[in-house]
Every structure is written in structure tokens, then in C-alpha cells.
Amino acid sequence: MYFNSMDIRRVSLCPIRKSAIYLMKKENVYMNKQLVIATNNGHKVEEFKKIFEPIGFEVTSTKDLGIDLEVEETASTYQENALIKAMAYRDLVSGWILADDSGIEIEALDFQPGVFSARYLGEQTPYEIKNRMILEKLEEETNRRAQFVCSIALVNEEGSYWVTINTCKGSIAHQILGSHGFGYDPIFIPDGYEQSFAQLPPEVKNEVSHRGKASKAAATYLHYLSEESYHE
Predict the structure, then answer these.
(1) Is residue 12 part of a domain?
(2) What is the pLDDT of residue 67?
(3) Using CA atoms in the order 70, 81, 76, 24, what is the torsion angle rounded to 10 degrees?
(4) CB count, 10 Å around CB of 113?
(5) Number of structural domains, the chain?
(6) With 80 as the cut, is the pLDDT of residue 7 above it?
(7) Considering 68, 101, 110, 191, which one is annotated as catalytic?
(8) 64 catalytic residue (yes or no)
(9) For labelling, which of 8, 53, 97, 143 has a CA lying 20 to 30 Å from the CA of 61?
(10) Considering the domain boundaries, does residue 180 fall inside one?
(11) What is the pTM of this model?
């Protein structure tokens, strides 16, 4: 399923990407404080809960609701893929749908795997193997600069949508570090730290990570809407 009727403005996929926010707000947007995360990844859901529950949202996931929908992320940007996923669930749930698309971009690998991060070496390939393969490719490489990218899309039943994109810059470690986190966390060291995402306490990771930044931007937007709805 591909939604090509939306006018989604693109940002450059160049190495230096600034945080960006895109907004379309239709009239008569009402505030439903249910937030459904379009993912089967329990780790992501826990990260989102820590951001959105403190501002009064009831957070659940499509997996919790028993919705099994295969969405083809066919776009070439994180923003479009996140919006494709969120729009696919629009008629299946009540409240706001949140979907994200994220990836890791490694300079020495021509900024790969990028938007194909989840499918890199095959979707069913364990991340331990993916991480070890990346470390092998960078074994003789001195340039280990990389960045995580996350785009979050919010959609409600009326079709209003909002999209943001954020990054976290850092470098690739020389070995797998830590056992917390998920995905490429054990090989990514954010700037300003000596520990990988998989070694940092969750509250620290959520403060500096690409997904943490995007989540806070989304939370700010939803909080703004709830305040507007309250005063109307």
C-alpha cells in the first residue's frame, strides 16, 4: 500500500541533516488521548510510553490490539515511509496513530544501510549478525562517523497528519558493546559519550537518541493540540 496523494515535502539525505518538522492541520481537529504505536517491536513501545504517558496519553500498540497488517515501506525517505505506515492503520484504530521509520547511516559505507536498515542482509537476519558484518566491513576503516535517523508520523481518524525527522550523530565502535537496547545500538556511540546506546541507561539514551528527540517533538505537538482543544 502506497499513499502518493499526500504532498510530503522532502528533506535532503545529505550527511549533514538538520532536524525538520512538517505539519498539515485540518479544521476541527479534536483531541483523542489514545495513542496507538504502529509496531510489533516491544522495545520501541516501552521507549514511546516513557515519553507520552507522562503527558496524559494512553499508549498501546497495534500488536496489543491484535492488528496484523503488513505494510510495504516502498518510499525512499524516512518521512514518507513513516507516513505510509501510519496512514495504513488510520481506519483500523481509534485515536492517534504513531509510526516511525529509522535507520543508521555510516559515512564509510556511503551512508548505508540508511532507509534499508531493517532489511539490511534480510529482515529475518539477527541484528547480532548485521552488527558483526558492519564491524568486519569497517575493520580497516579510520572514518567511523555515523548517525541514527528517525522520522515520526502522527495521523488521526480525520486524516490530519504531522511528520518530524531528527538525528543523533556519533561513531561506530570497534566491537559490540553492551547488552541493552536493540538493533544497531551495541555498535553506535553517540557524540559526547564513551558508551554505546546498548550500554547507556535508558533515560540517558532517550534524552540524546534520534527516536527520543523525535518523540519529544511529537509529544510537544500533541500537548499543544490538547491545550488548544481544552480552550476551545
Answers:
(1) no
(2) 92
(3) 150
(4) 18
(5) 1
(6) no
(7) 101
(8) no
(9) 8
(10) yes
(11) 0.84
